[in-house]
Design goal:
It is built from four helices and four strands; from the N terminus they run E-E-H-H-E-H-H-E. It has a four-stranded mixed beta sheet, sandwiched between helices.
Length: about 130
């Protein structure tokens, strides 16, 4: 997770993989940095739906993966449309991610990340189900 948080466009990340064949990640974008990139490209799509942003994030995740052992690499990821929040119960009062709550709240997305063959890293659609 810390390696993913070094990606300039990523504000937060949760890696899931306990008792699974490979690792997947839920990513929260840095709104300010994404807006700056999109302004340069005249991209008006919401950041989590922007093909340009997704391509940049995918390239950066691949760069991070190159430094990691195979079992530590992210095989698939999903860009969330909003940050984790206290109000939704996803963060503690000290702003740490509540992994169990995130796992439950985004269970459908997580299952979809595992439903298809892992193959190469696949960014997933960005809507919350």
């Amino acid at each position: 997770e810390e390696a993913l948080k070094t990606i300039p466009l990523v504000a937060d990340a949760v890696v899931i993989g306990d008792a699974r064949k490979y690792l997947v990640a839920l990513l929260v974008l840095d709104a300010g940095r994404c807006a700056a990139v999109q302004a340069q490209r005249d991209d008006r799509a919401p950041a989590h739906e922007s093909a340009a942003i997704r391509a940049l994030v995918e390239a950066e995740v691949a760069r991070v993966n190159a430094r990691l052992a195979r079992v530590e690499q992210i095989k698939r990821f999903h860009v969330l449309p909003r940050p984790f929040s206290l109000e939704e119960g996803e963060l503690t009062p000290t702003l740490k991610v509540r992994r169990k709550v995130v796992g439950e709240k985004f269970a459908a997305i997580i299952e979809k990340l595992y439903a298809d063959r892992p193959g190469e890293m696949q960014p997933e659609a960005s809507h919350v189900g």
